[in-house]
Amino acid sequence: MYIHQHTCISPQQTNGLIQLEEISISADGKLLAKEPVLEGVPPAMLRRMSKAVRMGIGTGLPLLKNNVADGIIIGTANGGMEDCIIFLNQIVDYEEGLLAPAAFVQSTPNAIAGQLSLITKNRGYNATHVHNGLAFENALLDAQMLISGHSHKSYLVGGVDEISSYNYNIDCLAGWYSKIKTNKHLYTDKTPATIAGEGAAMFIVNGSPVNALAQIKAVSLFHSTDPGTVVGRFKDFIAEWAPVADNTIFLSGENGDLRQTPLYESCEEVFGSAIPVARFKHVTGEYPTASSFALWLACYALKEQNLPPHFYKNEHNLSQVDRIIIYNQYQGMQHSFIFVTQ
Amino acid sequence: MGRIVVTGIGIITAIGEVLSEHRTALMNGKSGIGKAHFLRSKYIEKQPLGEIKMATAALAEKLNVTNASATRTDLIAFYAVQQAIADACLSEAVLSDAATALVGASTVGGMCLTDEMYADANLPDQSASPYLQSYSNSANTLFLQQQLGIGGIVNTFNTACSSSANAIMYGARLIKNGLAKKVIAGGVDSLSKYTINGFNALMILSDKPCRPFDAGRKGLNLGEGAAFLVLEKEEDAAGKNIYAAVTGYGNSNDAFHASATSADGEGPFLCMQRALEVAGLKPGDIDFINAHGTATENNDETESVAMLRLFEKVPAFASTKSYTGHTLGAAGAVEAVYSILGLQNQEIYPSLNFEEPIASTMQVPVRKYKKTHLRHVMSNSFGFGGNCTSLVFSKI
Questions:
Q1: Is the torsion defined by CA of A59, A64, A69, A72 positive or negative?
Q2: Tens-digit pLDDT profile for residues B297-310
Q3: Which residues of B participate in catalysis according to the annotation?
Q4: DSSP assigned state of A110
């Protein structure tokens, strides 16, 4: 499966003019996405959209304008959850009184794929995967299966999640986020929590290598809380897909949560010291579909043939980038490997 | 490659806790819709609901689940999944194999705990409830993964009311593409304050038992349930009881409105057409349609329009939502099970509460139980956001 175009909205300057040398600093334990002005959306529609839907439209619509897509496939853990909490609050605050349905209709996670199809009149394949930290990976697998045997078909595939009051408060209570941690010291401040983030990254994919930006060679996903199982699966993945480690970056989802760091480190050790390690959660924060940003960053590294120094975990002498292996995991339970090449 | 077949079924809804109870109720036209006893909502006095006749605590006890964070949604799903796994004789070793996948679906997820979630999301300084990990759409699939130790691909769909039809489609495609050998696919939703208030605000809930495809229909009844199928290749299922083959699936978006279907039923038309294409069938090969048939003003008319467009002669059709209520994210899987039951037993279950056809389309659903010859059955599911999916099941 080949990537032909992409867009990205993130807490950094990744939309339009891309600037990743200087990075925005987190505040109150959050990295908020920088939203562009949305064009081509009716104002009445825009007013009702949550940030997740706006980011999804802001990344998806420009790609759908330039390409005929045979379908729209979105991965989002929380989708329309900001509207969900609005409606939930109305139910409780008004003791199940007479409520307006707008927030209820917008609260379903399939609002992003639905609105994109509505605006562009796309009646093709349409799916929303919501499997938390593996929602985006399942969207990729979905596209890969659709393209297999139908290489001329193109799909919009993307990952979107926002920091909503719903997920943020609940995840803070559960101990996943710290309000005092910053992205400046994310990897050195060793505590059992990380910072919250959000964003959207979308891709046009099909089966044609002609003029492609990158190839997704393999996607693997599984659940485990056992570090031995994770490393075993990683070794199997490397042996099957990426036995050659020349000109390769290991892009790690390390997020500063000391409970999860050993998982990332044990996968790094599979390569010994032979391979440069890059990290990205200090520019995005943590969110369930952060791997969609990692895939976008992999495409960027392949194009630029490097990444700005702050991404690298250690000294490296990389002069050429041909391959990127992404390992990301969510809440110590959901793991994925994505292998991307020129 | 050989066909993809169904070798295990698990289901629980308002009309039964085991498969045979569902068939008995469907054969006898016995609906499970009525006054709810376990849901806490002020609407239980006004709205008839398709509630599972078991308290949440009783479900937990029956399943031997002591985990305090398990929601009603989790438990209902686990109840159905355990039946499906036992039915298909999947061992622990098979479940933990990297080639065994689990594909779930839900629209409500842990939001059945509307009040608890309100407190956790708005009042974070108070003490947290035990449900912090239980609210998401995927929480019930994650719960099942942990209980069963699934080793392969795990996913959750949320395309509103077509969610579990998409889960079954995705499961069949995982096998077709060699990404899994065995797949447990289905969906779950439990009754919740959240959805009752939502559908009430949209004014599409009927205060009487719903009347699919009737001219005087007043809206839908909400229900709850879970259904899961075990799918595998026919050649891997030697010696097993095979219920039916999954031969077709089609997905489309209506691209018309967030909560209504277009007047010409374009989305429903396209997904039915695509399902036939995948199955390699002509419209005339379909012997019965388990319609989406929610009994809302909009759905039943537009679904009828779409059927009239696709089929020269509309096949026999009925809506089992008149038995279970609309089980939302579970509906696609629940109705897949009822389609398969009909195929297996060569019989059609009637739609309830129908009196007079819709004037513009004049389509009459099956009103009496009958034995008949069925080769291919279609099951339709349409949801908010324009998501439409049709599945085709064929006799073995």
A1: positive
A2: 999 999 999 999 99
A3: 161, 292, 326
A4: T
Q: Which helix (H) or strand (E) holds A53?
A: helix A51-66
CATH code assigned at B41: 3.40.47.10
Residue A297: domain span: 214-341
* pLDDT tens by residue, A314-339: 988 889 999 999 999 999 999 999 99
Q: Which of A184, A206, A228 is the last residue of a domain?
A: A206
Asked if the Cβ–Cβ distance from B385 to A113 is below 8 Å, we say yes
Low-confidence ranges of chain A (pLDDT < 70): none
Helix (H) or strand (E) holding A206: strand A199-206
In this structure, the answer to whether residues B173 and B277 fall within a common structural domain is no
Instruction: Give the integer Cα–Cα distance in Å for B155 and B145.
Output: 10
The CA–CA distances, whole Å, from A31 to A26, A285, B55 equal 5, 6, 43
For residue B318, give its domain range: 244-394
Same domain, A118 and A263: no
Per-residue pLDDT band for B388 (boundaries 50, 70, 90) equals: very high
Residue type, B242: I
Residues 188-247 of A with CB under 8 A from B: 221-223
- Determine, for residues B253 and A126 on separate chains, whether the beta-carbon distance falls below 8 Å: yes
Count CB neighbours of A246 within 10 A. Answer: 10
